[in-house]
Amino acid sequence: MHSALWRSELDLTNKRVAVVGTGASAIQLVPRIADQVADLKVFQRSAPWVFPKSETNTARWSQRLFKALPASQPLIRQGLYWFMEYTGSGLFRDNMIRKITARMAEDYLQAQVPDPALRAQLRPNYTVGCKRRLPSDDYYPTFLKPQVSLVTTGMERLSPKGIVDASGVEHDLDVVIYATGFHVADFTKRNMEVRGLNGRELFVDWTHKGAEAYYGTTVSGYPGLFYILGPNTGLGHSSVLHMVESQINYLLAYIKQ
To answer: Which fold does the domain 3-52+114-178 belong to in CATH?
Structure first.
């Protein structure tokens, strides 16, 4: 099954399971199923850059501060926004921020994975920012469990027993889970039509010339069509809520006009 089409009726208890992929989907599901299964193999094509998620509760003192001084909330939010803008600059140019970010990820990997051989397999071989940076506090520790192993030779093909990897080794499996991403911009797979002026069809237009929208929100030739989180609005360094709120402000002005 694919992670996007999860079969909730399937019981993974004591099953031999493979997860193909190590991206944003895998980093969430691998730690969740590891303790259910008898054996878990994670097939990795390229290692992701992983950073601490650092999930914490909002401190009582900050709750009291927000209640007593409501103006402190937008101030703190502005601080967080500009901090993310500053640190995000390391995604787009080779600067000191990028070096510091990579060092943080390296230190995090070393602190969580004591085995040098496993650590080498989990270390990315490309520059931070080339792919999505992934936050997780429990992904690396999952590979320290005896029932979990990492396969770095890649998947060659399915077999009647499971998976044959690129080195020719056959892995006996009960379940294969694909965590291999999504066809986000493959408009030929859309099962709907959006028609504009003079009979234009949106996904046909976008298939020919690429997806584009003004501020990622409105599309020329399609009056009355609005997108939230439309083309090119995804972020790799900050909160997408900023994009959503900016688009809503634009939409309100559009409707008022």
So the answer is: FAD/NAD(P)-binding domain (3.50.50)
